[in-house]
Write a structure and sequence with these properties.
Length: about 250
């Protein structure tokens, strides 16, 4: 198995009004190609910051991050945004969708930006929307669809350029449990097709879909738990194991 993402002695310090806050403290982390890793931990422990720095959205203060064999620490802004566009997908709780574009156009946009053939991108978008059950709202405005539909649209958009890795920050945080389960089933299916996933979540039910869970406390990894790949059965058993472990971690 090869490593898709690794961080070595990763540090991130935010400085606001001369007061500096060491948010990530020498984090060592790696994930294998095809792995599905969840990041859990108390609010403010640095989960989102970890996701943003390893994906190159936010600048690291020190340390080294490698993606698919390439050192991101030495890439400039342009190289990083190209890498994100072509090889990474992003899903956030506050969904950064363009309000002026319909669902389908939002999904298509990063495909066009990649320079891929337009007809092929449009066809791919259609297939993705079909697969995720949102074809009927393809031409709806962003505010004319349900939270679950919008989050599935975000997943389509994240998939349009066939990323190697999807970063998700609380992708189900704003959804009811039914819609959350739908989104997680899709994300899990995407992962089974070979796309790696790194996801922040507050929910043991949601994290139960992942292969491995890391627990962040005060900017450092306090522990990790391997669950093995979810094969479509006994999700509640996995959730029970995870919940027990989370209690030991001080959850
Ligand atoms: N852009 C920023 N500027 C300054 N401080 C920030 C910024 N983003 C996050 N922080 C601080 O970093 C810490 C960790 O935040 P975050 O990574 O969002 O935590 P989590 O996702 O685990 O809740 C918090 O103390 C937060 O206030
Ligand atoms: Mg967060």
């Amino acid at each position: 198995m090869s490593i898709i993402l690794s961080a070595k002695e990763l540090c991130k310090t935010y400085t606001v009004n001369k007061y500096s806050n060491d948010v990530l403290k020498n984090v060592d982390f790696s994930m294998e190609e095809g792995e599905f890793v969840s990041v859990m931990g108390p609010s403010g422990s640095g989960k989102s910051t970890l996701l943003y720095t390893v994906s190159g959205m936010d600048k690291m203060t020190s340390g080294e991050v490698c993606f698919s064999g390439r050192n991101m620490s030495t890439m400039n802004k342009k190289e990083l945004s190209r890498l994100r566009l072509l090889e990474m997908g992003f899903i956030f709780q506050q969904m950064y969708m363009m309000k002026r574009l319909c669902i389908a156009d939002n999904i298509i946009l990063p495909g066009y930006q990649s320079g891929a053939d337009r007809a092929a991108v449009a066809k791919k978008a259609e297939e993705l929307m079909e697969r995720l059950g949102i074809s009927d709202v393809a031409h709806h405005e962003i505010n004319e669809v349900s939270g679950g539909q919008l989050q599935r649209a975000c997943l389509c958009r994240a998939l349009i350029n066939d990323p190697k890795l999807i970063f998700a920050d609380e992708p189900t945080g704003a959804l009811n449990s039914r819609a959350a389960a739908d989104v997680m089933k899709e994300l899990s299916a995407v992962n089974k097709n070979g796309t790696s996933v790194m996801m922040v979540t507050h929910s043991a039910k949601v994290a139960a879909y992942s292969d491995r869970v890391i627990y962040l406390v005060d900017g450092g990894i306090q522990g990790e738990l391997s669950l093995g790949k979810y094969e479509g059965s006994d999700l509640s058993g996995r959730e029970r194991i995870l919940s027990g472990w989370l209690m030991e971690q001080g959850w």
